[in-house]
Amino acid sequence: MTGVPASQPDDFQAFLSRPYRIEWGHCDPAGIVYAPRFLEMFGESTIMLFEKALGVRKRDMLKTQGVVGFPMVDVSAKFQRPAAYGDDVVLEVEAPDFGNSSFTIRHRLLKDGHVCVSGTEKRVWTVRDSERPGGMRAERVPDDIRARFALPGA
């Protein structure tokens, strides 16, 4: 498991990149990252991705857009090399690939320029369902939000 050097050409285009330090609480007794913690890191990156694109914090976005949230409906991860306590890594996330009401986001965690973990989340844009008290329903992601994720030159 050597991992894929990030410098090798692939189709991953980071919209957001952020440094991250692996802390003790992320790790199992052997000192390597406990697999579900990667999904937690990816979930945090998804929130930060929307905050970067929209220029507002998620809690404000929820209020102004009338969205309840974007729950995850599918997730996968590929583990290529370990990350351990004290490692300085980089988390990268691509702009969403929008369907109608759903969107898919790809993530990766790099250590020393090599991919340790890559993952994919599928989420659904949900709004309150006025016909069902306390209910939610899927709705098309607004076009103005989709436009915020267009990469320059794309």
Describe the structure concisely for a colleague.
This protein is of the alpha+beta class and 154 residues long.
How many beta strands in the DSSP annotation? 9
* Regions with little confidence, pLDDT below 50 for 5+ residues: none
The H/E string reads: EHHEEEEEEEEH
- CA(first)-CA(last) distance: 33 Å
Please summarize the sheet with the most strands.
6 strands, antiparallel
What average pLDDT do the residues reach? Answer: 89
> Count the helices. How many?
3
Secondary structure blueprint with pairings:
Blueprint: E1 14-21, H1 35-54, H2 58-65, E2 67-69, E3 72-79, E4 88-94, E5 97-98, E6 102-111, E7 114-124, E8 126-129, E9 135-138, H3 143-147
Antiparallel strand pairs: 1-4, 2-8, 3-7, 4-6, 5-6, 6-7, 8-9
Question: How does this model look, in words?
Answer:
The chain is of the alpha+beta class. Helices cover 21% and strands 37% of the residues. It has helices at 35-54, 58-65, 143-147, and strands spanning 14-21, 67-69, 72-79, 88-94, 97-98, 102-111, 114-124, 126-129, 135-138. Strands 1, 3, 4, 5, 6 and 7 form a six-stranded antiparallel beta sheet that branches. A three-stranded antiparallel beta sheet has the order 2-8-9. The chain is globular. The relative contact order is 0.23. The model has no long low-confidence stretch (mean pLDDT 89).
Relevant terms:
37% strand; three-stranded antiparallel beta sheet; 3 helices; six-stranded antiparallel beta sheet; 154 residues; alpha+beta; globular
